Amino acid sequence: MDDHEHVSDESFLDSWARFSPIERECFQHIDHEETLVDREHEQERNAAIERLWATFQDTASSLAHLYKERPLCDCCDQCTYNRNQPHERYWQQFQGAANKVTSLYRDGSEGIRAGFEFGYKAGYKKRNKDLANWLRKKKRSIRREDILLNLSGHSPPRRKVNDSVRTISPNHDLTMSPESNGEFDFLNDSRIAEGRKRHTEFNLFETPHKRNKFS
């Protein structure tokens, strides 16, 4: 029976025509979105490396210039230090070097933060693609239990044929209670129409504002 189910799943995956146009569009959007995220992450990573390398070169140059122009004592005639000379030039060199070091730290920390953000984003898109690939192999009606097991990284239990295939009467209420493990049809148009009807009926109720209670 497992071999038969495996063959049926593969045939369902290959039969792209079984999906509606909006379903095929959603699948294509998910696949294309992950490719865009990977490309964006690669471009941002290369730009961050180049930016960090340029900042490092500026920092190294400023520190070398600060060391070369350092003031010396007045112990001999070769010293460039003069007690009566203002130190504004040396102070400006020190400030420039300190600013370069600060920029190096800022660019490094921003690169790490951006890497974490892209990692979370790529993981989210990867999860969507894995879930979409899993949905391609499933039937139209999917058990809520199977979805939770898939999201938690567990395999669905082996079921009998009479448990996995159920016949739902047209007058049966598809609303699942917390104790129910029945199948849920995500693509059932009747549930969408029912939700719109309830939303319309709720808006027709008189609110305290319509009764001028708060006026």
TrEMBL record:
Q: Which residues cross the membrane?
A: none
Record's subcellular location: Nucleus
Location, primary (coarse class):
nucleus
Q: Does the record's keyword annotation contain Repeat?
A: no
* Keyword Aminoacyl-tRNA synthetase attached: no
Q: What keywords sit in the KW lines? A: Nucleus
The highest taxon in the source lineage is Eukaryota
Q: Protein name, please?
A: HUWE1-associated protein modifying stress responses 1
